[in-house]
Amino acid sequence: MKTEKTDKKQAILDAAEKLFCETGYEGTSTRQIAKESGANMAMINYYFGSKEGVFIEIMNNRIAGFSSQLRIINEDKITSLEKLHKVIEGYANRILANTAFHKMMHRELSLTQRPEMYDKIKDAMSHNMQLIDRIINEGMENGTFNQIDGRMIIATIMGTLTNIVISPNKVMPCSNFDLNDPKDNKMIKDRAIAYLKDLTTVYLTTKK
Q1: Residue 94's pLDDT band (boundaries 50, 70, 90)?
Q2: Which fold has domain 60-205?
Q3: Distance between CA atoms of 180 and 131, rounded to whole angstroms?
Q4: CATH code that applies to domain 1-49
């Protein structure tokens, strides 16, 4: 019975994510989520309370998944620069594995009418930011990195990848480029990872 409930809860989350990506947050109703998932309205209310609750649960699950990856990287017996490069690889892989979701998330959270939703998700994201901060601070403390603004480095990494997903034409001027094409996706991902690794290496380790 417990497994059946877990499966039904996951089915709701999977259906909601698909609909949010296709029609946006406002364009998706709890009734549509119920129909797509094979659940009923009572189940959605029981597990999540509301459509906003479903959205926040999806976001929190994704944030928690990246958090687990960051903890492993932090505990790895490698240099601070190698850790940061693993963060870049991990984040790029996660973002470019589901560009539709990332675009939807960026669009919805940037809307001014969702400050409460943004605040709840921001609180969940703060732990991941602290884990990346730890890598950068460790590098500064042991002399591997220059003394820099760590949060600006994080913003540069995340902002670059978000920009690529939202406006790929900025780095790929050809009109037939398609992030949904596996070949194009891999090409831009590899290019972005190489660029961000080079950028952070030069900025963090070149003696001033």
Answers
A1: very high
A2: Tetracycline Repressor; domain 2 (1.10.357)
A3: 31
A4: 1.10.10.60
Task: Select from 36, 33, 203, 62 the least CA-distant residue to 124.
Answer: 62
Domain ranges for the chain, please list them: 1-49, 60-205
Residue given tokens 């991902």 in the structure block: 189
Residue 1 pLDDT = 47
Q: What angle do CA 126, 129, 134 make, to 5 degrees?
A: 130
C-alpha span between 145 and 123 (Å, rounded): 28
> What's the distance, CA 208 to chain centroid?
33
Q: Which two tokens stand for residue 140?
A: 């500064």
Half-sphere exposure of 155 (CA within 13 A, CB side): 5
Pick from 206, 171, 178, 166: nearest CA to 192: 171
* Alpha carbons 108 and 115: distance in angstroms, whole number: 10
- In one-letter notation, the amino acid at residue 169 is N
| Cβ(153)–Cβ(203) below 8 Å | yes
Q: Could you tell me how many helices (H) and strands (E) the chain has, helices first?
A: 9, 0
pLDDT at position 170 is 83
How large is the C-alpha radius of gyration of the chain?
A: 19
